[in-house]
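User: quick one, fold this
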Amino acid sequence: MSHSDDTSAIAAAELETLIREGVPLVGSYGVTVESVGAGTIRLRMPYRTDFVRPGGTVTGPALFGLADVALYGAVLSLIGRVELAVTTSMTINFLRKPGQFGVIAEARILKLGKRLAYGDVLLYSEGEDEPVAHVTGTYSIPPDRPPVTMLA
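Assistant:
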């Protein structure tokens, strides 16, 4: 069940739809929004056997995609539905091998400026206390303009 608190500029259900339709590759991962607040978000990516690489670990590209949309969601939780906000840089540090479980992403915005937002994401194997990866990233926020609607 997804949850939005009153301080978020975008509802969890709207954000989940935006991820699924606006970022279709990651949307196909089955990512769900567990909670969203002002500048924070918690996402869940289910365990899938097609995400497991040799050695029995979740593949890095799946983790990176989850982290990217988590940071995107955290940005939108502050500025509302601005679909043209885009990643300008992102760094991932893998800390330990993820288990064969779903992956939780907890993102927060550390600095929001007029044109850039900077934040970080911690990724956890579901049910574990220690993160499997730490991600930092910057998003570019377009100049004031009406939101773009997705084409059907």
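User: anything notable?
Assistant: The CA atoms of residues 47 and 101 lie 5 Å apart.
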